[in-house]
Amino acid sequence: MIKKNYDAVVIGAGPAGSSFAYYAVGKGLSVLMVEKQREVAHTILCAEGVSSEFLSLVRKGDGHQRDYIATYIYGGILTYDGKPYVETRLTEPGGAILERKIFDRYLAERAVRKGADILVNTRFVSAERKGNDIEVHLKRGNNDEIVLTSLLVDASGPTSVVAKALGLFEEYDKDTDFYTYQVYGYCDGIKDNYLYFSIGENIAPKGYAWIFPKGGGFANIGVGIPGKRDGLDVYLNNFLEKHCKTFKILGVIHGVVPTGFHKRRLYDDNVLILGDAARLADPLTGGGIANAYISGLVAAEVASQAKKEGKFDVSVLKGYERRLKKWIMHDYMVTLFAKMFYVSLSREELQSFMESIGESLGHMEINPPINPVSMLLKVLKKDPLFLFRFGRKGIYAAKETLRQFI
Ligand SMILES: Cc1cc2nc3c(=O)[nH]c(=O)nc-3n(C[C@H](O)[C@H](O)[C@H](O)COP(=O)(O)OP(=O)(O)OC[C@H]3O[C@@H](n4cnc5c(N)ncnc54)[C@H](O)[C@@H]3O)c2cc1C
User: Fold this and answer.
1) Quick one: three-class SS letters along the chain?
2) Domain shared by 130 and 13, yes or no
3) Contact (Cβ atoms closer than 8 angstroms) between residue 372 and residue 304
4) What is the CA(389)–ligand 1 centre distance, in A?
């Protein structure tokens, strides 16, 4: 049976899908959100860290809030092979660790209150183009349902179910995916309000380990390594052994964070691809909440334009990719460069790099946003041969970054 016709149907009620629904309804579109879980945010794969800048964007113009902050962040420590090298202290919070279950539910509630419809316990199965519209086949519990829409939005997370069903995306890209293993739990003595990052061949080769505190001794502790799925549990257990032998585990997650959106097209006739489904996460850290949310906002603006012009084809929808790149591309390229630089360093080079920045930056009291250029100048002042030692790798990383965009 064909159900109601919507301007847009969005698959997935994560940050990308809920952000899209909220802003699109605000612009006069009728929107249906479809979520396969029995309740929104039932299962979350995340360390829950976000920046203050992102929180300001979410809070803009919405009076109704929920208490989704676990703790604010006032600094961070970077260690290499267990030894602290750089420590920053902020006078204002640089970000926060969320209670993502509350946060994601809040974003979905906000969209529904604005006027979006939602179906939970409902899975996207397939889609078929019908003239100027698209027919979406869903499985709601055991029942089949069909919905007709002008725009189908893929916000299904790393599985990119719509993009794959329509043949727009292939399987994962091993080179750009970030594999993670994380536990949530309690350890007496974990420092509240501080992020803890650790790198090194024995910690997480070419990746990093993290402790993201949630207050009162609770924390998300995990490891993430690009392109490597095996052995993550061994790295995490070693890390826990070193930092908190008595860690009491309340939850375990494995997850993949897909990056590399710049290698793909994020639109087609009647289709937009958002958030993790579009592989928008930060290539260095794997953080993807902010870009997922921003992609929802930008997609809603373009969908509104498409409705006004009465056509949801590529001639209008390509504007989504253009506007999104304008917003996020600069930061994405900087972190892609940083990743390329980091993974190109040998063990000895990484040690020498850490010693140099450790001596120059050591303990810093700074206010966000952190400016990489002024940090580099500080390093050069203390270590004038820094560029001589690492310039070649920097040029390599810059070339690799640019090559990916040509
Ligand atoms: C271990 C780990 C730690 C992380 N830590 C951070 C961090 O600290 N900070 C940060 O910014 N990012 C972090 N991330 C990344 C972040 O979680 C994601 O980038 C973010 O959730 C992307 O949001 P999204 O809305 O695109 O996708 P998701 O949050 O994955 O939402 C997709 C939704 O689609 C639904 N869905 C999927 N398939 C279907 C279907 N067939 N039918 C209907 N619904 C469907 C899913 O149930 C889900 O609710 C981390 C990821 C991992 C794995």
Assistant:
1) CEEEEEEEEEECCCHHHHHHHHHHHHCCCCEEEECCCCCCCCCCCCCCEEEHHHHHHHHCCCCCCCCCEEEEECEEEEEECCEEEEEEEECCCCEEEECHHHHHHHHHHHHHHHCCEEECCEEEEEEEEECCEEEEEEEECCEEEEEEEEEEEECCHHHCHHHHHCCCCCCCCCCCEEEEEEEEEECCCCCCCCEEEEECCCCCCCCEEEEEEEECCEEEEEEEEECCCCCHHHHHHHHHHHHCCCCEEEEEEEEEEECCHHHCCCEECCEEECHHHHCCCCCCCCCCHHHHHHHHHHHHHHHHHHHHHCCCCHHHHHHHHHHHHHHHHHHHHHHHHHHHHHHHCCHHHHHHHHHHHHHHHCEEEECCCCCHHHHHHHHHHHCCCHHHHHHHHHHHHHHHHHHHHC
2) yes
3) no
4) 39
Q: Which residues line ligand 1 (CB under 6 A)?
A: 11-17, 34-37, 45-50, 123-124, 155-157, 159, 161, 180, 182, 222, 253, 255, 257, 275-277, 281, 286-290, 292
User: In this model, does residue 257 exceed pLDDT 60?
Assistant: yes
Q: Are 21 and 113 in contact (CB under 8 A)?
A: no
Domain end residue (candidates: 194, 229, 258): 258
**Threshold 0.90, pTM exceeds:** yes
Question: Which residue minimizes the CA distance to atom 30 of ligand 1?
Answer: 157
pLDDT at position 262 is 83
Please give the torsion angle defined by the CA atoms of residues 207, 208, 209 and 215, in that order, rounded to the nearest 10 degrees. -130
**pLDDT tens digit string along 303-315?**
999 999 999 999 9
51 plus 135 within the same structural domain = yes
Mean pLDDT, rounded, for 380-384: 82
Same domain, residue pair 292 and 370:
no
How far is 102 from 311, CA to CA, in rounded Å?
36
- With vertex at residue 86, the alpha carbon angle to CA 361 and CA 332, rounded to the nearest 5 degrees, is 90
Task: Please report whether residue 87 resides in a domain.
Answer: no
